[in-house]
Amino acid sequence: MLKFVGVSKLYDDKEALSNISFELNKGDFLFIVGPSGAGKTTILKLIHKEIEPTRGEIFFNNSSLTKYNGRVYLLRRKISMIFQDYKLFKRKTVYENVSFPLEIQGFSPQLIRSKVLYTLKMVGLEEQVNKFPHTLSGGEMQRVSIARAIVNNPDILIADEPTGNLDWKTSFNIVDLFIKINENGTTVIMSTHNEEIIKKYNKRILYIKDGKKLYEKYPHIS
Amino acid sequence: MKNIHIFLREIKESLINIIRSGFLTIISIFVIIVSIYSIGMIYYFLNYSNEVKKGIENKIEISFYLSRDTNEVRIKEIENEIVNMNGVESVKYISPEVALEELIKEYPEYESIFKDLDKNPLPPTFFVKPDSVYSINEITSKISKITEVSDFFYSKDLVDKLLFSIRTFAFLSIIIVSIFIGIFVFFLGSNITVSIYNRRDDIEIMKLVGTQPSFIKRPFYIEGIILSLIGGTISSFLLNKSFSEITKLLNIILPFVENQNLSNQLNTSLYIYLNLSAIFISLIVSYFVLRRYLKEIYP
After folding, report:
1. Residue B77 belongs to what H/E stretch?
2. What pLDDT sits at residue B263?
3. Interface probe, candidates B5, B8, B199, chain A, greatest A C-beta count within 10 A
4. Angle at Cα B282 formed by Cα B277 and Cα B287, nearest 5°?
5. End-to-end CA distance of chain A, in Å?
């Protein structure tokens, strides 16, 4: 489903990512782990096509990402991203935030309503539909962000340090939610430097440091 | 069906933005009203000055005398020559005999004096009506070259002043209209720029969640159209009131100008043109501002 082939990324002659290769299949769950500045966000931004690789190639569903040049919005409807700072519309309610990706695709109001309410129930926010983001806690805002990312049934969900601003308990709840989403068939890629999370969840790990892949660890099969 | 839902969503987005922009929206509408109203009034006065010109043209005649010894054959030739001149609407010839009869009719108390004269003192006379005030100088120049012409008259000062006034007014009108269009463009452009700046975070999020560029751009175009229509409608209403009041006033001040129906003639078509022009300008301004500020979003 997703394949990195010798991908490197340079920022002003500084190598942020060096010759990275890995492959993900449908329904996989991957933690990208490493210290701050290791290149985790660069990998996610490359997948989301916010930046272009300097060398190498990225494939999604057997097609190069260059296929989406000029139509990057089509890719972002299939690969949704969750951010550490949530990136919610401040002047829209929870419902409006989550319904937005469906509205821009022209779905009928009835279909949008049923999908949004179902998704908000899934992330445990069915009571908060008419609230504005600033009235929510950090964990709730991240749940809104997740709901907005999955309402569209993306093929891949990528999350950039989604628990970075949250306490332990809330962080585990959020990762539990990712596990649940993954169990429904969505491929999930999550970057983190939180060792506790990696230890708790038996998932595939891609460890990078200074832009290089140090090792890749697959989950234990019991 | 999907496109209809998207279009309705874009209209909703535009209306929300108009309401949220608050003070900026009010300023923009005010500027549009002032600009369209001023352009409408200038258009009215240009039309009015045209009516004034026509009113004066109807009264302007060039009259010229031939020397008394000019024979009938030559008089006929001169008449044909003048009829064929560019800018001549009509020519009327008055022979010395007819002129004397008219003089006697006008001053019957002097009839005996006129009849006692040995020789008719009145010269052969032509009255030439130009088709426009702009033709007068050309006609008089040609007439003055006819050797038999002894003298000619027309209200030179009045015509020159009229031509100068019309040209000055037209020139000033173009400058004033250009200034108002400039102000309109500046404020509308500023409104869109500030709107983009205020919504830069939202636009960034839209980009990240897979919004097509047209969905980001079209609400700005729709916003410009809505503001232009609101401003255009209000200024059309004000122009309608102003036209009828000013027409009434001018009919009293300058009764010789036939402008009774001027305000009615201008109404519908002018309002449509002004509104369409405002929409057209807003679309052009939106296009360039969006191209300048949003090109980094979807390069």
Report:
1. helix B72-83
2. 60
3. B5
4. 130
5. 26
